[in-house]
C-alpha cells in the first residue's frame, strides 16, 4: 500500500503543479502497460507462428491493422474510466436493459475463459518444454505462480503495475534478441506490412485469430477499471491532464506490443516459411528452432513464452474478476476465480486435444466476442450525457465505428467460411 499511496500523492502533486519534470510523468504509467500484456499473450504466439510459417511476411498488415484498432479502443476504454469513475461493465449494467446486460455478461465470460485457456496453456507449454516435464505438471506450476503474483493485488495497484511492467520488458527484450538472431528479409517485411492480402481461406482464419489475439475483449473491459479513480481528479482540467498522459502511455505501450507481434511473425517467416511452412505448433516451433537458429534462439523463445503465459494469465484473472463484479455486483475470492477459469485448460489437456489448435481456436472465439465491448464503448464515449465535454468527436467516432465494422466483417466472413458459404475473393 505504501507504494500505491506514494504514487497517488505524487500524481496529485503533478496535477496541482507542485511537482514538475520529465520523471514525474512516469507516475501515470501503469494501466496501459498492464493492458498491453494481453497483446503479447500465448495466443499471439500460436497465431503469429502460423502466420509467419504458412505465409511468410504476407499477413504482417493484419498485425499492424489490429494494433492500430487496439490503440484506439484502449484509449477509449481508459477515457471512460477516467471521466466517469466507472468501468465498462459497470456502465453497461447501469445503462442497458437487464436482458442485454445478462447477454453481455455471458458473452464476456465465455471470452474470459477463452482468454485464460490461451494464457494458461501457453505458460504450461513453455514450462513443460523448458524443464522436460509433462504438460499437466506445467499447468500446475503455472497455476501456483500466477496465484502467487495475484496476492500482490492486495497491496494496491502499483506493485502489480511494476511486476507486469517488468514482464513486458522481458518479453520485449527476448524478441529484440530473436530478430537479431533470425535473418529477416526486411524488404519483404515492409511490403507485407503495407499490402493487404488474404491468399486463401486458411489465411482468413489466421487473420481473424490475429485480430482476436491482438484486440482483446477482456483488455477493453480491464483498462477502464484500471484507470477509474486511480488518480484523484478535482476538476475537468485535471481530467484533461490525466487523459493526455493516458493517451501517450497507450500509444507507447501498444506500439511496443505491436512491434513484439511483428517480430514474432518475422521470426517465424524467417525460420520456418522456406522448407518448414507446415510448422503450426508451439512445441514444433521450439524443436525446429534449435537446428535452424541455435539453442540460444530456442531458449529465448521459451523464456518469452513462459513470461507471457504467467503474466497474461494474471491479467486475465484480474479482468475476469472485474467483469463479474461490474455486470453482476457479485464478488468471488480471487482464488475461486482462478480455479474456475483453469477448468477449460485442464479439460483440453485431459481429453488429449492439440494444445496449439486450442490456442488458435480460443483466439477466434475472442474475435467473435470482441464486437460486444467495442460497440458498448463507442456508445458510451460518444454520449455527452455520459462523458460531458469529454465525449469523443466525429472523427474519432467514425474511426471507432470503422474499426468495429472491420472486426465484424472479418467475423461474418469467417462464419460464412465455417458453414460452407462460398467467398468470392478467397481461393480455397
From TrEMBL:
Listed GO biological process terms: iron ion transmembrane transport
Presence of keyword Transmembrane: yes
Localization per Swiss-Prot or TrEMBL: Cell membrane; Membrane
Membrane topology type: Multi-pass membrane protein
Pfam families per UniProt: Nramp (PF01566)
Residue ranges crossing the lipid bilayer per the database entry: 21-40, 52-73, 100-118, 124-150, 162-181, 201-222, 250-272, 292-315, 335-353, 359-380, 401-427
The organism's place on the tree of life at top rank: Bacteria
Keywords assigned by UniProt, alphabetized: Cell membrane, Ion transport, Membrane, Symport, Transmembrane, Transmembrane helix, Transport
Keyword Chloroplast: no
Family: Belongs to the NRAMP family.
HAMAP family reported for this sequence: NRAMP (MF_00221)
Name of this protein: Divalent metal cation transporter MntH
Lineage: Bacteria, Pseudomonadati, Pseudomonadota, Alphaproteobacteria, Rhodobacterales
Amino acid at each position: 500500500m505504501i507504494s500505491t499511496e506514494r504514487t497517488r500523492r505524487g500524481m496529485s502533486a503533478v496535477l496541482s503543479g507542485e511537482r514538475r519534470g520529465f520523471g514525474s510523468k512516469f507516475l501515470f504509467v501503469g494501466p496501459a502497460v498492464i493492458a498491453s500484456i494481453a497483446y503479447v499473450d500465448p495466443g499471439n504466439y500460436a497465431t503469429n507462428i502460423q502466420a509467419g510459417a504458412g505465409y511468410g511476411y504476407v499477413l504482417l498488415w493484419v498485425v499492424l491493422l489490429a494494433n492500430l484498432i487496439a490503440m484506439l479502443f484502449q484509449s477509449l476504454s481508459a477515457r471512460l474510466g477516467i471521466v466517469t469513475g466507472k468501468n465498462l461493465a459497470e456502465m453497461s449494467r447501469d445503462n442497458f436493459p437487464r436482458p442485454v446486460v445478462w447477454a453481455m455478461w455471458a458473452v464476456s465470460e465465455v471470452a474470459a475463459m477463452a482468454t485464460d485457456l490461451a494464457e494458461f496453456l501457453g505458460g504450461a507449454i513453455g514450462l513443460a518444454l523448458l524443464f522436460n516435464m509433462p504438460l499437466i505438471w506445467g499447468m500446475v506450476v503455472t497455476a501456483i505462480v500466477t496465484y502467487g503474483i495475484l496476492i500482490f493485488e492486495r497491496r494496491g495497484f502499483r506493485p502489480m503495475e511494476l511486476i507486469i511492467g517488468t514482464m513486458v520488458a522481458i518479453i520485449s527484450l527476448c524478441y529484440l534478441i530473436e530478430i537479431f538472431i533470425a535473418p529477416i528479409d526486411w524488404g519483404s517485411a515492409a511490403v507485407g506490412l503495407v499490402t493487404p492480402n488474404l491468399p486463401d481461406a486458411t489465411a482468413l482464419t489466421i487473420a481473424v485469430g490475429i485480430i482476436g489475439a491482438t484486440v482483446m475483449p477482456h483488455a477493453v473491459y480491464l483498462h477502464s477499471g484500471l484507470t477509474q479513480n486511480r488518480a484523484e481528479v478535482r476538476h475537468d482540467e485535471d481530467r484533461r491532464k490525466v487523459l493526455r498522459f493516458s493517451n501517450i502511455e497507450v500509444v507507447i505501450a501498444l506500439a511496443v506490443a505491436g512491434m513484439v507481434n511483428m517480430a514474432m511473425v518475422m521470426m517465424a517467416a524467417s525460420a520456418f516459411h522456406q522448407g518448414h511452412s507446415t510448422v503450426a505448433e508451439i512445441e514444433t516451433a521450439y524443436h525446429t528452432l534449435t537446428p535452424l537458429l541455435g539453442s540460444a534462439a530456442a531458449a529465448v523463445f521459451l523464456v518469452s513464452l513462459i513470461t507471457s503465459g504467467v503474466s497474461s494469465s494474471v491479467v486475465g484473472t484480474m479482468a475476469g474478476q472485474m467483469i463479474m463484479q461490474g455486470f453482476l455486483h457479485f464478488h468471488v475470492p480471487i482464488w475461486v476465480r482462478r480455479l474456475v477459469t483453469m477448468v477449460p485448460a485442464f479439460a483440453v489437456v485431459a481429453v488429449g486435444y492439440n494444445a496449439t489448435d486450442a490456442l488458435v481456436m480460443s483466439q477466434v472465439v475472442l474475435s467473435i466476442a470482441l464486437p460486444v465491448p467495442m460497440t458498448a464503448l463507442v456508445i458510451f464515449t460518444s454520449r455527452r450525457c455520459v462523458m460531458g465535454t469529454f465525449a469523443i468527436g466525429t472523427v474519432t467516432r467514425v474511426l471507432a465505428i470503422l474499426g468495429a465494422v472491420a472486426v465484424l466483417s472479418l467475423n461474418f466472413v469467417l462464419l460464412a467460411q465455417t458453414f460452407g458459404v462460398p467467398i468470392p475473393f478467397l481461393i480455397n
